[in-house]
């Protein structure tokens, strides 16, 4: 099926000025063109008489000055009311240089409502011939700037309208503007839109560059379509695009994020070297992450050694990855040695480093050593975050110190963090193991007030403990709490907890 014929740019005739209108516009033009350039406040006496038609003619007369960029931004902003009328704004966009046009659009976009944008787009098309004085459809840079500005502002629906209008009139956006759109889709976590737009680019025979290809690979990887990302890498040379280290790193990171993907990543690294590209810290860190994820610390350390031999200095991410790998294997001594090597090498220690070390100690119940690390991070002018508090709560849960776990939970909330279900579960479980059901009841009340629903295993532990301790009156107290009926089934208040069949009825 043949593609539809492009629509010609519309013809538009601006009504001429006469009489007072002509004299008024001539006076404003003379005032603005004066040397030195007048300040914005000096226009106040002209503003009441600036109708959209007068303003449009004024902008056309000031066209040469606008193209040279001699009229300050503040002066232009004063001339246009808020919200700006579509006709004079459209003509102004045509006369401004592309970079200044983008800056001006960024300042006026907040005052352009979603309903007014299609009207602005229509007027940009309508005035294209009037402003450019040419019959060539390709000479409408304002449309391209409008498209990219919408994308940069993360207004993808507006950008799509602008793109469709361009294509309908046989216009193509620049590859830079296309990259802005794809980048905005990725920032909005909409990789499927990025991929769909890239396919539209290929259908329109728009040539991608290396940035386009790298971002499309990222989009495919975010969608879990690593094979498609690998195909893009292979086809880059067919598009006349040279592969870079970033191209390979994108795919290597995707392979290492998947289970069992280290071998393809290593093959890709070898291919990268064969093409004359030097692996950088991003390359090595991604593969080290994949090896640590599989628990292969020997190979991870060997790769770090190769990294140093090739003149690539291990950074904070490298050491943090190693420390996390050791902590996952419960090898806190090796994690501590990696930390010492990190400090000795003068590599910056950050919150991720401290949190990993603290978690490793807390997993073994070594809360005093973890506390000393908290003091160290405070001396380093770092502040404990939600992960720090969670790790410390894990340590107290391991030691079954319910009061200290509750203190940490309260400190976490006081610091502005929101405890998740796991934090509450550990604290409630610790109180139940210590037979302190009043304390567990208080924590459950807080959970329900925050609309966090207890899971069945936690409810079993709590209510069975009440039954064994003969404190079922506390269940009545819990039942009266707001949201209790919503999150706790009635069967917990009525069934015999020694009867396993009753438990299995709970959904």
Automatic annotation (TrEMBL):
Assigned keywords, A-Z: Repeat, Transit peptide
Presence of the UniProt keyword Cytoplasm in the record: no
Entry-linked Pfam families: PPR, PPR_2
Entry-linked InterPro entries: PPR_rpt, TPR-like_helical_dom_sf
PPR repeat start and end residues: 174-208, 209-243, 244-279, 280-314, 315-349, 350-384, 385-419, 420-454
Keyword Membrane: no
Similarity comment: family membership: Belongs to the PPR family. P subfamily.
Name listed for the protein in its UniProt record: Pentatricopeptide repeat-containing protein
Organism of origin: Digitaria exilis
Native organism taxonomy: Eukaryota, Viridiplantae, Streptophyta, Embryophyta, Tracheophyta
